[in-house]
Amino acid sequence: MKNIWILALLGLIASCNSIETNDLEKQSVENDDYIVFGRFYGYCLGEKCIDIYKFTDQKILEDSRDQYPNYIESYPGSFDQDLTENWYKYAEIHLPEVPVALFQEQDTIVGMPDAADWGGVYFEINQNGEKRYWLLDNNSDNLPEYLVDFKNALHDLSQELP
Length: 162
Prior knowledge:
Blueprint: H1 2-30, E1 34-40, E2 50-55, E3 60-63, E4 79-82, H2 85-94, E5 109-110, E6 120-127, E7 130-137, H3 145-160
Parallel strand pairs: 5-7
Antiparallel strand pairs: 1-2, 1-6, 2-3, 3-4, 6-7
């Protein structure tokens, strides 16, 4: 009978440790800072219609899903294509500073992205466990002035990356 209690106690301890480890791993994944950015075109053919990338503090990854983003949820990418260190350094240099005013935007859509087949720019940021995302109009005339240079830099960078 004593052996059964010892086994039960060891099982309970192991399951608690497993829960704690899983919770810590989950928390670590949720709190990783990153930026997701790219460009998209709805009526388009070929590989360069949707280019979405994930930039972390250690690497840059390309999305392999090439799914058209929507305003209902953040981009559900499959970031499994690790780009080279040279591309990471290039992106690190060319990623624009995020305008503080962007965080004041209440809507996830700014302008009319891809309204007349001119495309759009996707931007997502996860910082300190808080995730926000926006779909930006590729037509600069439909954006607030503070976003034009930011949008252009993201569009150009996503066009230059492989």
